[in-house]
Amino acid sequence: MELNISGLKCDTPHCNYRDDDVKFEDYEKSIGKKCPVCQSNLLTQKDYDDCVKMYNNIEKFNEIGEILKWMNPFHYYRLLFGDKRKMSNLNVKYENDGTQTRVIKKED
Is residue 34 helix, strand or coil? Predict the structure, then answer.
C-alpha cells in the first residue's frame, strides 16, 4: 500500500486557503504555522501526530503484507508461471477538517 501525504489547507470554514506543495517531510516545520489569509493555525501538533501515526501504521501494514503474501498459494503461482495480471488498486483521499471528523473518499 502506498501512502502519499502532502499539502496543507486551512480548516476555518470561511477560508479557502490551501498549499498543495507542502511535503510530508516538511510538516514538522509547519506545526503552528499561521494561515496567510485568516491567521488560523494550519497544522496543530495533534494533526501532525495523527499523520505520523497513520504513516507508521501503513508502514507496519506493508511489512506484514510482505510476510503474509508468501502464505497465499496464488502468489507462488504468479511467481512460477509469470502471471502478470495487474493487482487491484484502491486510491483514497483523506482529509482532516480540524474537527474529530475525518473524510476518506475513494478516488477514480
Answer: strand
For residue 81 the three cell numbers come to 508461471
pLDDT for 105 beyond 70: no
Backbone φ and ψ of 19, nearest 5°:
-130, 100
pTM: predicted TM-score of the whole model, two decimal places = 0.63
Cell of 29: 516545520
Residue with the three cell numbers 490551501: 18
- CA 105 vs CA 27, 35, 43, 108: distances in Å: 22, 25, 21, 10
Mean per-residue pLDDT, 68-78: 69
Beta strand extents in 1-108 (DSSP E only): 6-9, 18-23, 91-96, 102-107
Nine-digit cell string for 19: 498549499
Distance CA 42, CA 26 (A): 13
Distance CA 37, CA 48 (A): 21
- Asked whether the beta carbons of 31 and 43 are under 8 A apart, the reply is yes
